[in-house]
Amino acid sequence: MKKVSYYYDNHFKIGDVNENLYSSFIEHLGRAVYSGIYEPGHEKADEDGFRTDAMEVIKDLKLGLVRYPGGNFVSNYDWKDGIGPKENRPKRMEFAWSSVETNQFGIDDFCRWAKKAGIEPMIAVNLGTGSVKSAAELVEYCNHPGGTYWSDLRIKNGSKEPYNIKYWCLGNEMEGTWQAGHLSAEDYAKKACEAAKLMKWVDKDIKLVACGSSYEMLPTYMDWDRIVLKELYPYVDYISTHNYNMNTNQGTSNFLASYKQLDDHIKNTERVLDYVKAKNKEEKDIKICLDEWNVWNFQDIKLDSLDDLQGLTTFEVTSAEKWEEAPAILEEKYSLLDALTVGGLAITLINNADRVKIACLAQLINVIAPITTQRNGGVLKQSTYYPFSMVSNYGRGTVLKPSVNGASYKCDFGELPLVEAATVYDKESDEIRVFALNCNQDEDTELDLQFNGFGDRKISKQFVLSGDDLELRNTFESPDNVTVKEKDLSNCDGTKVVLPKLSWNVLIIK
Predict the structure, then answer these.
(1) Which residue of the set 292, 332, 420, 446 is catalytic?
(2) Domains of the chain (ranges plus CATH)?
(3) Known catalytic membership, residue 173
(4) Where is the Alpha-L-arabinofuranosidase C-terminal domain (predicted)?
């Protein structure tokens, strides 16, 4: 049996996990809102039309933030269409996803839902087709106590107390030509600076997220961040980046190793931040907001060429016609292999907790999501729900920095340890929690954990996500095909443990 050893010392730490590292995202896209979190008339809908069955499953994730309302959607969205009496709200063509937006759910509805779900909102403003004044007016509507036009209108619409939204995104993927109102880096920096200025005039305490480079395939990758940060650095608190991993016949090893690609992607953003901080002689640190990440296999998008991804042509969604209301699109059916990969990506997030302070799994429900609902029906936890739930529930505390030795494997990202792990120490419970992905496809692997400065330790629990069929998926008929199971530790030797081949594990060490 091959062996990998991780050595830890209580003096060597990466950083503390921010509660917002485990956040998510809801866009007006497909069925994320309509029949996802909101379905008036459903037998389990509350007085506001919110699906309580979906809400209970979401609460178990213990999310920090939920980003809203987009995404590509936000760049051609007028938030004023979604307020006031619902019978007066207009139906609009939604250009990003070729759908019809009914506006039956808007900013007031989202804030009420978030409060009930125990979640803090993170709101994106339209810096594509929208104006900087409209962005500031939205802050006024949400955060000002009263006595002005927009704050009084919020009160009239049923919310006497302000929402006091702290986190605001200055647009979405504005470097992409697929974005409505796409801007160059220079033009975005100018517009975002003005928006930031006005928004902070309304509420000086808000935290702002600048649009960073989204995807490595773009010719502006990293240059965009450098140009934008040169102007925006004093105004913002975070810079965003996005990262999706796709299983496109590159082989199991390379797909599982997506955690390394994400790590490289995050490190690139760090390098630009460090460069601009030094170049501009800035004192504050800007943190990273990975406000979209997930496995996305494009199961119902037809791609003729990479031009489709670069906005030079249009996506062809195969599961819906144009101009439908809340069409069932981008509803990925996630496999065990997808779940293992998501678990690996979560390990990378933990290991970058010193710089990544916000990370939003995109998305939360129905659309490339860990949760699926049926219209007028039930709720399903997809395979990817389980690794995300486990890191959110157990992955809080101080991240320890390891020294790693042992067996390795080769892939397109280089030579990597057979076991990729992240480890946190939770001082309150005095527990060490280890998240470990065994990439060995042939046999089980022994993981030897050694801790210096933590006293005597023993693995008390091992949760395992694994199986013989990597293509196995959860369905409404068989909802437990893929789930996390607790393993018998009767043969465990202290802090040595056997990880099943191709498995994602959580180890609780007391």
Answers:
(1) 292
(2) 2-10+399-509 (2.60.40.1180), 18-394 (3.20.20.80)
(3) yes
(4) 291-503
